[in-house]
Amino acid sequence: MFVTAPHYVRAVNTITHSSKRERRSELLARATPELVRELAEQALGLTELSKELTVTQPPQTGLVMMQVREPVCKERFYLGEVVTTRAEVALGETRGWSMRLGSDKQTALGAAICDVVAELGDARTDGLATEIEALCDRTEYRLSQESALEWNEIAKTIVDFEEFAYRRWHLVYVPCDQRVSYISGALALPLPLGELHTSQDEQDGSEGERNRFGSENGALHDSKVSSLLTMAHLRDTFGRVKRDLRISLTDRCNLRCSYCMPPEGLPWIPQPEILTDDEIVRVAKIAVDHGITKLRLTGGEPLLRPNLIDIVGRMSKLLPRPDIALTTNGIGLAHLAAPLAEAGLTRVNVSLDTLQPARFKELTHRDRFDDVIAGLQAAQRTSLAPIKVNSVLMRGVNDDEAPDLLRWALKNDIRLRFIEQMPLDAQHGWQRETMLTADQIIENLSTDFVLTPLTKEQRGSAPAEEFLVDGGPATVGIIGSVTRPFCADCDRIRLTADGQIRNCLFATEEDSVREILRSGTADIDERVAAVLFHSVLKKKKGHGIGDPDFVQPIRPMSAIGG
Question: Cα separation of 316 and 310, whole Å?
Answer without folding.
Answer: 10
